[in-house]
Design goal:
Four copies of one chain form a homotetramer. In chain A, 41% of the residues lie in helices and 17% in strands. Chain A is of the alpha/beta class. Chain A folds into two domains: 93 residues, Aspartate Aminotransferase, domain 1; 237 residues, 3-Layer(aba) Sandwich (Aspartate Aminotransferase, domain 2). In chain A, the strands form three sheets. In chain A, strands 2-8-7-6-5-3-4 form a seven-stranded mixed β-sheet, with helices on both faces. In chain A, strands 9-12-11 form a three-stranded antiparallel β-sheet.
């Protein structure tokens, strides 16, 4: 069986393993205060062109989301998210477990607009009993979204403008950031994205690392005491340099972007094959996740040789997710394309 | 100005004040363990025909909802509710503040069906990554609903049957229970309702008391250590007998039902007047809350003499809530009806 | 049996019941925004000589403590308290349930000193791994303490100076404030106390009211959005005017102070009787709570006619709490004194 | 500089890196459901002689402690721990952040006794107002303790007997389990330890792994839905096999025990050197952590060549922690011993 069900099937890029091997018996202090983490921080600050940004390394996405959100909100405040947002669906209520409501907004493709946020804020501000409702106090989006879709620079600017107007910190979940940035349809650079939000994270787990997400805090007001939050929520890795090693390698010689680009190329080949085979899509994605609509027969046939993800039904068709990653081989992609031609 | 904006505008029924006066200098122990609370408990157990039910007296609705729900759920579990449910909209995220997600279901009129709950459970149970999502673990409904609508005995039986099948405790918010039970359209008795759920509360604040809700726990598994929960969440009144006095009076000689019936009569007179004046309704309510659809002009005119509640817009009409209560006078009702005839 | 086990045995001062009676059928808006609450707020602002202070009315002490503390702290912060502090012992972990550690300090008599707080802060600030420990971020004291003891003006000034130096808000639990202020040993006025902390509350439940605590916030930084906190934690009373009525009466013509003084007079008579009968005390209290050390025989004899509170053992003696209150009669006091003479 | 300040200075045992290298491009499903995790689980079940135990792999110690404790307790319950327990001191209030009080017990050496737990329980059960206090509901101990001390088999049996009598689950924090089990003074086997508690964890981070703790749940009542807890608290690693690889290697050919034994040998050489140099100890430790009492001069001299941990003062002496680990070399140990001879 060949696996396309997720983008965390394999281990890590060879450079990372090599660096771990080389540095294995080094003695360093713990908790992310070592020189390797420091070097990784500097590379990321350089990549976003902001030497004042705080950079923290966490282990996983859910952990990162709950810590960032819990660090920002006061007890009676909630976070605005698309109803399809990862924090609203696939984190077992991690945000609620920290005491906060996820205020979910309708979304066709996984994105939300500045106007939707504006409407939420205006309704709240004009509610004469506003203290009886959760106070919307920050905005969460994912780039790319859970559906593989992207915000255009214009959409993101509009959203951030509204957030700024209402003093809502904007947090971008970049679990798949590289796959968004390297999409042929994307018109935003990492530098620009870092200036169109207050805090975001660069996903490592799905983009070449064994694990790890790099939180980048650009807004000064959000920087204070963040390490206390990490420690309290169990996110502070004792051998923190393992995280430093991974991001130091990923941000050396643009490795992060190169391997992301490869995943996109594989995905676009698959997308093209679907178009040629007249296989419809559930969402119009130009990133590494493709959502195909397959009949039961097609799904069954595909599953005979490939492992994919089942995302439920749309009408009577099955929503099937196919993921590529930094590790996807041309051979496996070719094999999948062959199959797609015949179903 | 005459007030119809809520059902907690006045103080308490005279019998309650009289009893407070008489018993004022009695010395009793605190925290609800006194003889007056004991007497009130017995009256409620008698009224529901279940001497084994646990009865606890709390101060207010939000407090009651959060304590009951927090007492039942484990950290990763959530409560199913109509999206219009009070816990989902008007309690400032009190349930989330206890760590739990409110799993909201679409609802036209404020009720949810057994089939909707069944669908939630089946989707969860068949999710291969179910531990990535909040586990639905109890059901919350209000009777009557926030829109003044009611569950028929058949609807409630169907819902409870589904809950029982999936081992979901069913919790009924009875903040306005009297006004539901005494509605001409209601076909459920208090005794029956107490057998069609696992825990519910009898609202006092809106039905003749100064404050107070009586939680009735019929399911043994939910009884353990409930007083610890009350105390921890700040719900244990030092002079607990004040709550006992109110429910002892309300359940003496069916006072609770008599005063509820009065509120319904006033509401039905108003409803009739609306029908005759061809004023449409936002919801088809036969309880003490009536939701009128008024044009801006009508709303303005009404507001010249009456205080009502604004529940937003439906298309271009204003949703106006008019509440009656145990304390609503025939005079005020007549005055309102006169006005309704002319707008 | 005559009861001396607590200071919340009876109902409320007659003026309060009278006012409830008179105003019972008034129609007012809810949630503490009515004119009676407004009048009560003004009386309290006048009593402390600060028209800018925010005044909120809550139902009970545990509720008040958890809401004030939760409103002030960020998730990784804790509150400093004497180990005997009410929040640390008798609130079922209400503060922890909001996510915060109570950092407890040793205390002989229930008070803590500025030097103790200074030591905690210096240890934390000089800890190279400080983010691995809870950040001390506010100080909680009770006046009088749970042991009936008091802070002198000098002690409170020293403590507040340290708090100010380390930017620690100081919160004073005044559940029995009146009984502290009217003690013959007290040298602090209400006005002065209000200036030697950032937030405090005036206890009503134990001092003449049916229930109710008035939170007074003097520090601007702590005022924002407090009503959201009250609502979320279930502390917002629908018929809020009931709280307004009680504090409006208590702060009319110094009633609060007069009835507190009466309780102290009764307590001092009892204290004098103990001294004459050579009955030792567990704590040197000049407030309404007296802690006697009685042998088993003495305790047994006392209990034949009087209900008192058992506070455990000190060596082989029983710590017995006797409370007076605004409602304690001279007759009951005389009867108790007679008994104390003979045991 | 040579480092002895902690036992997580280096990377991982070479076998682990080798296995990561070999398996790097394997495609496996995520979240710990892969075949490598399955193999590691079986090895651990074999090592404890219990094929029915649930084994879960988490990333770090604080995360493990908070998830296990939060999974066991109901909202109003607390966990009993030595005041020096890691959860009470060095986890930034992680347990409180989940809503639970740590009920701390005095301890000279870091251990607590069955009698201490019995006293807590008896006091609580005989408290007539018990619902006003946190309900003690589980016991947390560390083996070895934070001070390097151990429980004898007799002590642990006594403690567990008391826990069983009061229905208190006993949780053993085994962050340094290997270093305890291989101590010459230890008389408990892993098999025996697994039967003298209800849940425990095998520390990997400090004993040869890059990171990772293996939670072993032997009590059936504690097994349900544990994976929901892991996910909600951000402890579920996407590429879960990384954890499987580490424990599969550590429990192959007793590697875990062999490398632990090495650390103990290095520590005992250092301990012997201290004795010969008449350097006193703060605690009588026979595990990999040694707590020396050094004068300022001695401390200064030691620090010229070695990095150690400062654990504060005992009288006028400095408490200095020296840690060995699986990675400590004989050369570094010899160098340290040389130094100890001369100071």
């Amino acid at each position: 069986m060949i696996h396309f069900e997720s983008d965390y099937l394999e281990g890590a890029h060879e450079n990372i393993l090599k660096r771990m091997q080389e540095s294995n018996l080094m003695q360093t202090c713990g908790y992310g205060m070592d020189e390797i983490c420091e070097s990784a921080r500097k590379r990321i600050q350089k990549a976003i062109g902001n030497s004042k940004a705080d950079v923290h390394f966490l282990v996983g996405g859910t952990q990162t989301n709950l810590i960032v959100i819990d660090a920002i909100l006061r007890p009676y405040q909630g976070v605005i998210s698309a109803e399809s947002g990862h924090i609203n669906v696939h984190e077992t209520g991690a945000v609620e477990a920290c005491g906060h409501k996820v205020i979910s907004l309708k979304s066709e493709d996984g994105t939300i607009s500045g106007n939707q946020v504006k409407e939420v804020m205006e309704n709240h501000l004009h509610d004469s009993n506003k203290e009886h409702t959760v106070q919307p106090a920050m905005v969460y989006i994912s780039f790319p979204t859970e559906n593989g879709t992207l915000y255009s620079k214009k959409q993101l600017k509009d959203l951030y403008q509204v957030c700024t107007h209402y003093h809502l910190p904007l947090f971008i979940d970049g679990a798949r950031l590289g796959y968004g940035l390297m999409s042929e349809k994307n018109d935003i650079t990492l530098k620009e994205l870092s200036k169109l939000c207050d805090v975001f994270y660069i996903g490592g787990t799905k983009v070449g690392a064994l694990f790890g997400e790099a939180v980048v805090i650009t807004k000064d007001a959000l920087k204070k005491d963040f390490r206390y939050m990490i420690k309290q929520r169990g996110g502070m890795l004792a051998k923190g340099r393992m995280l430093g090693i991974q991001f130091d390698e990923l941000f050396k010689d643009d490795l992060y972007f190169k391997i992301s680009k490869h995943a996109i190329e594989m995905a676009m080949q698959i997308k093209q094959a679907c178009i040629e085979a007249s296989i419809p899509f559930a969402y119009e994605s130009f990133t590494n996740q493709q959502f195909l609509l397959l009949s039961d027969t097609q799904y069954k046939k595909l599953s005979s040789k490939f492992v994919v993800s089942d995302f439920g039904k749309k009408n009577d068709m099955n929503i099937i997710r196919i993921c590529t990653s930094w590790a996807t081989t041309q051979n496996n992609t070719d094999a999948l394309i062959e199959m797609l031609k015949t179903i």
